[in-house]
Amino acid sequence: QLQLQESGPGLVKPSGTLSLTCTVSGGSVSSSTYYWDWIRQPPGKGLEWIGNIYYSGSTYYNPSLKRRLTISIDTSKNQFSLKLSSVTAADTAIYYCARQSSSFRPFDYWGQGTLVTVSS
Amino acid sequence: QSALTQPASVSGSPGQSITISCTGTSSDVGSYNLVSWYQQHPGKAPKFMIFEVNKRPSGVSNRFSGSKSGNTASLTISGLQAEDEADYYCCSYAGSRTSHWVFGGGTKLTVL
After folding, report:
1. Cα torsion for A101, A105, A111, A117, to the nearest 10°?
2. CA of B106: which chain A residue's CA is closest?
3. Tens-digit pLDDT profile for residues A26-52
4. What is the interface size between A and B, counted as CB pairs within 8 Å?
């Protein structure tokens, strides 16, 4: 059974960089079939797609975050990561990693999510 | 402000049917048959219930169905059960030149 698990600091200072890693078990990020996504949810609010990465390293970003965003993949560790720079309180959210079985398929597996708070 | 518009809340009694609407534009819902619906219980990750407008993944009850007309997609839940009480989010592909995937603001379903 595929499992995804987010990890990283739960508190980031304003203007700092938010860094999260998603560790995949029960499957491989090296598979040519899948896309690996980041999605976030501000407390009490709706979902926002952040971006995704393919095993080859090709990335697709939400234009509203593109200037601050880097998504990378480490096939040796079976992980993919998110870095969001120049964060503000508006970036406070639960961050989920998820999988798509192709670029046009739904997000079929999700991590449990991790809350990141931006505060001094 | 979410890209897709959903009602904030809907309610129904056990056994009844409810429908949740999801209104987008001709650039997302209206252009692609790539609408999906997600169920989220409190404190849990979303679970996909419908994809490609009206397809159900294995394991999802046939009480859940989806449809689309123009720029509006809909999720219908028939034979409401207590465990259906949750938040529901629609999602649509919006094209590779935009934000790719857009979500609705979510609808809280209350089973009375």
Report:
1. 130
2. A46
3. 999 999 889 999 999 999 899 999 999
4. 53
